[in-house]
Every structure is written in structure tokens, then in C-alpha cells.
Amino acid sequence: MQLRRSLLALSAALLFLAPLARAEAPQVQTQVPGYYRTQLGDFEVTALYDGAIELETKLLKNARPQDLNALLARMFVGNPKMQTAVNAYLINTGKNLVLVDTGAAKLFGPSLGNIAANLKAAGYSLEQVDTVVLTHLHADHMGGLNDAGGQPIFPKARILAAQEDNDFWLSEKVAAAAPEGMQPFFKLSRDSAAPYLAKGQWATFAAGSELVPGIRAVKANGHTPGHTAFAVESKGQKLLIWGDLVHAHAVQFAKPGVSIEFDVDQKQAIATRKAIMKEAAASKVLVGGMHLPFPGLGHVRAEGKGSYAWVPVEFAPLPARP
């Protein structure tokens, strides 16, 4: 009898607890802040995620459809639309706080425009940025210079652009001679630069220039006339931030001869990509790319003659500082 009463009591208790076990937790439906930090010698490098946008695979040129489809499927990348990240990089040299590109703001829709928020989430303020260097003057790289009202958000920064891109994208004369479909892109560039030009915070640089100690401009033209990579070096450790050398990682590492419609000079863009990939694979330098899967940091591995693979970094803690 005692055993029966105990079993009945246990059954009642389990019945009471059952609803608790079935209680549903609401889904959070948010992602973690988009930043990733790594150490480069004495420099702290923080990758910042602006967001992602879907590009039509038909924008890729010089690829047979069957090859394109196979490469996209091999890397489980969407087709006919592929997701493409937009990244920026914040470099704290100890003396300068340098932002490489600013993202797109909301110029291309709500899926982008998170650089400022992620910079703050990473522990910095917009006022602390003293230098902004631009790989080129496409709006998805400079649109984040201003807020939604067109006001500058980097009050203390000097903005540095390659002379060739400055003379191309900010020229109303060049814009007027361009195809009608391109003219809105010229206007986006001029509008983004205007507040800083008015305040005297805008300046240009030449390839090979050291922009701040430890960061040097590297000529990488083709995608735009002044498209620039940046070599970052501290205590013998090196990072090459190569801007828009690659838009479709699933395709353009294996086939560097594939270009994209946005390349101003398709032939030169291909030649630049081939040369930089060959050097990066040989030197094993750490690479950062604005349209590589976030955080866009990794290495280039040779995969045979003229073909390469992308090897992303593994998530890792920062080394202990003395």
C-alpha cells in the first residue's frame, strides 16, 4: 500500500512538472555584433561587418555557365543570386585609429549599413577615428561616411582617397561622358565626399605612399582607376587589405580570369587579381577582403597553375599582452 501511495505521489508530481518541461522560449532572432579582432604585431586589427547583399551571378564575366554553376554548387553558394559580404577594417596602431572603408550605409537597402554600430560595439567611438582610407570610391565603400541626413559621422578624421579615383568619380565632366546607367554611381560618390570636401577633411594619395606609419598604399587598379590595396605591417607581421579584388569567392579564386560587371577596366582588373593572388600565395601573407565571407581574413593557397583557394582564419582568442 505504501509503495502504491508513493507511485501515485510521484505520478502526480511528474504531471505537475510536465507543463514546465514543455514551456516554449521565444526565438531571439538577432545575430551577434559583427566584429572580429586580431593582433598584428603591435597593431590591433578589428574586422567590421557592414552586412550582406545578394548579387546576380550573371554579373560575372568570362565564365562558361556550366563552370560557373559547378563552382557555386561546390561551395554551396546561392545561384542565380549569391550572398556577398561587405566588410571594413579598423586598425589601431597605438598612435592612429584608421578605418579602411566605411561600408554602404543604407544606400543599397536595409541589409547593409552596420559599420558605425559595429565599430561602437567593438569598443570604439566614431570621434576616435582620426583617419579613413578608402580602397576606392564606390558607394558601398564610402557611403558610410555620412548619416541618413547626409551629415558626416567622422568629425575628427581626414579622409584619404587615391588621386586617380578622386579625379574619376568626383568629376562631373567624367560623369557626364559616362553611360547613363553609370551616372547615379558618380552622384553617390560625389554626395558622400561633399561634406568632407567642404570642411577641408578630404585629401588624396599616390600609390606607394605611407598614409600613417605602418600602412602603405599598394596600386591595385582595374576595378576602378585608383583601386588601392593597403599593406599593413607591424613587427614583421603583415596584412594585405585588398579591397574589391574578389567579389565571388566561390568562383574567382579557382578562376581569377573571371571578372565582374562593376570592373571599370575588365582586362586590368583580371591582370591585377592574378598578380596579387600569385604573390599572396607565394608569400603566405595574411589577406583581408571587403567582399570575402566575414571576417574576410585568411590566406591564399595555390591549387595548381593559375588557380587558388581561399583559406579563412579560424576563430581564435587574442594573445595575452605583457
Automatic annotation (TrEMBL):
Matching InterPro entries: MBL_superfamily_lactonases, Metallo-B-lactamas, RibonucZ/Hydroxyglut_hydro
Keywords in alphabetical order: Hydrolase, Metal-binding, Signal, Zinc
Highest taxon of the lineage: Bacteria
Transmembrane segments: none
Cross-referenced SMART domains: Lactamase_B (SM00849)
UniProt key word Signal: yes
Domain Metallo-beta-lactamase: start-end pairs: 85-291
Pfam families in UniProt: Lactamase_B
Signal sequence region: 1-23
Keyword Zinc: yes
Classification via Gene3D superfamilies: Ribonuclease Z/Hydroxyacylglutathione hydrolase-like
Family: Belongs to the metallo-beta-lactamase superfamily.
Stated name of the protein: Glyoxylase-like metal-dependent hydrolase (Beta-lactamase superfamily II)
Protein's organism: Azospira oryzae
